[in-house]
Design a protein that fits this description.
Elements: E1 25-31, E2 36-42, E3 69-70, E4 72-74, E5 82-84, E6 88-90, E7 100-104, E8 116-123, E9 130-133, H1 138-147, E10 151-158, E11 164-170, E12 176-178, E13 183-188
Parallel strand pairs: 3-7, 4-12
Antiparallel strand pairs: 1-2, 4-5, 6-7, 8-12, 8-13, 9-11, 10-11, 10-13
Length: about 190
Amino acid sequence: MRLARSGPWNGIYFGLISSDPDMSIEPILVDNQDEICYTYKSYNNPTIMLLKLNKPGPSDPCGHYGNCGTNTDCSNNKTHLCECLKGFKLKSQHNQTWPKTFVTSYRFDCKSEGKFMKLSGIKLPDFLEVSPNESMNLRDSDAKCLKNCSCRNYAISDVTGGGSGYLMWFGDLIDIKKITNGMDVYIRM
């Protein structure tokens, strides 16, 4: 059972573990054919670090995995902790407790022009059904997602050097949260 997740590596840091300018370490991710490894390098040697994991888990209600259900946005800065994403509706009027399930409020028509709504400052959805492409740009991602009726949203995967590579999601969007220094997500409308 998943309790929490940090979010994906964006070229600088993992989704919810931002790179604090006062930190004394440089995070390093190696991802190639031979290995996948996360490590860090100390700016000021020697540095003693302590990583503490506590049993209760996240103290932030939005930090609990899937707390709001599918196709929702969790934010501590709103009147309601959980809100349905624009373009979605409650699947059943019988379920009035969280987590709820929301489905698209429109029918996909692959023959007509589609559009995307941009959400800024977002922790990317979970990678349950995702397709990465390291060579695409924003325009290519938009066009490719529109050609595939199952594509729900896309986002840049590497924010370094002006940004490159994109991720496309298929199926329900789970564990979306508004965060400081979050990323832009383009959701199909």
